[in-house]
Amino acid sequence: MQIDDISDMATLRAHIDALDEQLVGLLAQRYALIARAARIKEQIGLPARIDERVEEVVANAGRHAASRGLERALIENIWRQMVEAAIAQEDRYLNGDRP
To answer: What is the value of pTM for the model shown?
Structure first.
């Protein structure tokens, strides 16, 4: 189905809700990868925050956003918040707060 083929709000909302569920699933996968990163960082002695990597991840997201016609600054802001949450997650693990 093409987006332009959606003619009523109920169908449109159902598509948005389904997409939101997929996005949450992808975020859960990202969360699991961050948990793994914390374990690897512990083994090799890296800190949770690596500023160069933060900027690389944010820039990558911005570039992907721009290539898809999205507002680069908005996506970079969202990604920066996600990265900060990931760093906090890694910090908790590295400081002994483990599930």
So the answer is: 0.86
